[in-house]
Amino acid sequence: MHIIQVDSVQRWMEDLKLMTDCECMCILQSKPISIEKDDQNELTLSSQYSTCDNLQLLLKRAWIISTELTKIAQKLEKNRWQRVHSMTVRVNCHVRSMINEYSTFTRNPSEEMHQYEKLLIDKCSEFTAFTERCVQTEDEQILKSMKSCINETLTTVAQYFGQLIELILTQEAQNLLRQIELSDSMHITELAISSLFSLTQEGAHLCRIIAKEGGVVALFKICRQDCFRCLYPQTLRTLASICCVEEGMHQLEKADGILCLADILTDNSHSEATHAEAAAVIAQITSPHLTFTQHLSSFLENMEEIVTALVKLCKEASSGDVFLLASAALANITFFDTMACEILLQLNAMKILLAACSDKHIVDTPYSRDQVVTILANMSVLDQCASEIIEGNGVQLLMEMLFERSSSGNSAEVAACERVQQKSAVTLARLSRDPEVADAAVKLSCIPRLIKLCRSPTERNNSDSVLVACLAALRRLAVMSPDGLEDSDFQQLVKPRLVDSFLLCTNMEESFV
Predict the structure, then answer these.
(1) Are 130 and 145 spatial neighbours (Cβ–Cβ below 8 Å)?
(2) What are the TM regions of this chain, as residue ranges (predicted)?
(3) Angle at 35 between CA 29 and CA 39, to 5 degrees
């Protein structure tokens, strides 16, 4: 009974919003409470939040309008005219409120922006008038003929709205970048960078706007001025966010950003936080998931000193977060260029990474272990890696990684655990071409564990990629140590074609194990 009452009240309040006359609402919002100059200024200041807060409010309002427009299109398809009209009234009110709110904190809006504001308001009014006429008629033929006009008007409203939002966000990005470039004040620059970072968190589209307006170049200028050293971590974090889009990467290349990052990483006078954020930028721009890294030609020129600095950062990391950023950058670089693996081998990186894994305060999450095992897997193609693995007790670590399980059940963590299991099996398969590694793996009971992962879907979280990797590792070890398998395991998991064993394991019931 209580639930019914609550729902009824909520529904009544929602309906009440729709009964409000939007023109009266907007006029009330536009009127000052006091006509006295001092009081009015006080009111403006008290309601004036930071640029970041104002933009968040604007983006929230824009999201609401965008969602409402989508819903109107859905209701229109179903000919639910009453709902279409009530939602149109609501959109009209939201649009006017958004324009009024923005006008209270913007400075010098462009003429083009004023034009789009007028076009949008006029088109919204026209839209509301159209839908009101539809509500007032019951003639199906008239409604059918008006439907195409309403659809066309809805499309135009959405178009004007999108263009207005684009103009507003572009102007705000320009204002923030102007503050960063022209201000000598530490406080103003810090606030502008903070607001810019908040914008980057709103999605790739905003990152593209910032990049196109010269955001990457402006931020790298900050990173080249010693007077702003205390702002380097914040600035680099913002750069990492912008460089998730292709426009940001192109700007980074133009700003000679790789050289700047290399200078920061190799300068021991910088704080660990600065080095960590520089590593985060490197991790972002070398991500194997990006398809537009081929133009980073300058990266190869600075790769050796960058890799050296990152290995040093891994070795001296004071926290798990710092290690994660540095190891993630290294892991991505090993995908980016095979020469990186040879550099890592020369720097004794294998020993450093294996030692870090024994410190639970440093390598404390599946995400960190995922980076480490990625580096090991990519380095394992080199013949010299086998001896390094044996010396650093690496086979034991790989065996432990085959048992990686999520403690929280979080989907991202579960996926990281799957990657750890898969890559540890891949690394074992590659390294087991060396008899010494294969012998160590057999002695540590890797074969029973690999069999368990193949036969038990829950052990591998039903992951096919883990299954394939484990079958490959098992087959490699079976060649080196055929006595370690029972005949049924050999007949089902080793002797058939890989695809047949895979199909057999994926169709197994849990009770079979």
Answers:
(1) no
(2) none
(3) 95
